[in-house]
Design a protein that fits this description.
Number of helices: 16
Largest sheet: 7 strands, mixed
Order of helices and strands: HHHHHEEEHEHHEHHEHEEHHEEHEHEH
Low-confidence stretches: 1-15, 42-66
Strand content: 5-15%
Distance between the termini: 64 Å
Radius of gyration: 24 Å
Structural class: alpha/beta
Number of strands: 12
Amino acid sequence: MSPKTDHMRPYEYPIARRWNILLIAVFCTFLLVTAAGYAHFIIFIQREVVAHPESAEQLLGRRCDHGFPRPTFRKFLTGAFQKQLEAACQDNIVGRDLILKRYRDVGRMINRRLLGLFPREESALLPMGGNVAAPRDLSRLLWLPAWYEPTKLPLLQARADYYNQLVQREPQVRVYVFADLGATAWWLQSNPYPGGVMRLLDDGKYASAFESMLTRGVTYSWIGRGLPAAEELTAYYQTDHHWTMAGSWMAYRYIHDAMLANTPVLGLAIARVPLQDIPGLEYQGTRAYRAVFAGMSDRVQDGAFGLPPLIVDVPSISSDKRSLHRQDYLNGSYSRIPFHNHYADYFGVDYPLIHYQNPASTNDRNLLVIGDSMDNALEPLLASHYRHAYFADPRQFDENLDTFIKQQAIHDVVFIGQQGWILGLSKPLE
């Protein structure tokens, strides 16, 4: 082997150049695909607005207002980049399926190493791609288990202080907080790992610890508390993180019964009714989408609940689109695109604020619900017990909470959603 001369450095070897060229080519290809997808999306919106002016507000209201996400290693690892890219592109990105499959393969490789830390027992999970795993019997898709980290307890205390201070500032308002643990936590409770592994995983530990941090003025629980874990697990879609209609009705009963104990004038709960499948619909939800796994699907059900006539107003658009979508689905008119978000189309997309009026209400109480998409299917059920009911999405609602409570004469405030933001583990409320 000839000696290395002074002017030759390691990065000047031909193999290094080839790798640099390859990486640059991959990065440039990604930029070109992203730019093409963005242009295609813009053209699609313009064409739809021209052809269907009546749908312009809905189309524009559902696009990503913040543009395309900035790629970072953390965003790729957690799946945040894919979520933000999907929000920006909807179903209109060039090469969508190819990108999703490559993302799935990388995620599966990472997950296989993470799950390899656990004992290979029958209860172990299989990596499916993205941040999705599945039991060995492939009975459903789940998010990867979350670690329980005691160092995050100060985050919980900060969120508890938020609720406690709200009660102090607005003593005339009753505050209720309900957390959704998620299907993975319930699965872990019904399929515990052996040995000391469970001490490292969150199977409801954060939710339990949070209770002792609240003052008596805050009514708190998690949906499904007291039920067998295996039973609560059936409240979720197999391929999606949302509750089914049956699960949403159960969540509604948890909330209603807690409020009824303090406010009897709300009246009896809306009775459960037989549920029917949406004809011909096979729903492949968010987890199936993340893993690009088409081997499992859900039925979407709904029922004719005995609701009073409700007037719905969405301030950010000129009219309510939700009932139109529901009727379309019942008529068999819905998207057949694989992995389409039928939950949002049927139960409603997330708007900053939705206002329900109930002229037949026997009381004059007003409700404010601050929640994510977990509350979409149960909104009409809760609204049936109030004169006015407001549903705000914390990711989009930018009004001052105290001012809104006073202006709308709110009596009850309910926080409901995935435990990450409810307990303060993720981005805090503004």
